Amino acid sequence: MDLWWNARLEMILDKMDTYKPNRTINKKQHWDDIYANSPQEKLGWFENDLSPTIQLLSKTGLDTTARTLIIGAGSTTLVDELIKQEYSNIIATDISKVALDNLQQRVNNLSIEYIIDDLTKPSKLSSIEPIDLWIDRAVLHFFTEENERTTYFNLLKRKVKEGGFVLLAQFSLNGASKCSGLPLYRYSKEMLQSSLGDRFSLIDSFDYIYTMPSGDIRPYIYTLFKYKSRLY
Ligand SMILES: C[S@@+](CC[C@H](N)C(=O)[O-])C[C@H]1O[C@@H](n2cnc3c(N)ncnc32)[C@H](O)[C@@H]1O
């Protein structure tokens, strides 16, 4: 009888989307399932047009040997673009092994390092060498718990070199409140600045309306910060 009730309850909660945020989700499984079951060009965050990111990258003045960490890379086409631009020091990290396997098979480039890790409980990422560039499109906004955000920003501050850059592109305050069935914590540039602290200076930012493969639109805030040296 208990089993029957549990199954009924599961079914009801599945139908009542509003209750989902309070339920425990196995995040790794969630993302693995998405990447295993959707063609990449149908993903709700698939990009044909990388111009907003490329526009900010051009402001860093970094050269193509910059040690570049792509956060929650998934199967992003940004990796293909950076390789085309001859970036030679790329690390792609994600919680989903399926996503990184898909990416690795597609780009087929031996210079890229792949790290499977959870940004909210970093283990391998904690021991990587410092980086010049941290790029996160559409990952940070999934961290709805304060302790998750604290862990994320602590890792970032430990890993970005002085003089390095942080590119954050997240759903803006007027953006959707969910993505791929998960609740979001949305951002303004002021909120990102406040989480990064005074040693990061805002180099550029803009609002950007992303069009999903379905044709729906999603407003983002794009920001580029520089980690100031202690000398300034
Ligand atoms: C909306 S997708 C964006 C993917 C990619 N950044 C892009 O722009 O195409 C969010 C990504 O974050 C990854 N992710 C979610 N939670 C994560 C976590 N706790 N640690 C590491 N990656 C995570 C997912 O697997 C997924 O690839």
TrEMBL record:
All residue ranges annotated as the Methyltransferase domain in the record: 71-164
Annotated Pfam families: Methyltransf_25 (PF13649)
SUPFAM superfamilies with a match to the protein in the record: S-adenosyl-L-methionine-dependent methyltransferases
InterPro entries reported for this sequence: Methyltransf_25, SAM-dependent_MTases_sf
Family annotation (CDD domains): AdoMet_MTases
UniProt-recorded name of the protein: Methyltransferase domain-containing protein
Species per Swiss-Prot/TrEMBL record: hydrothermal vent metagenome
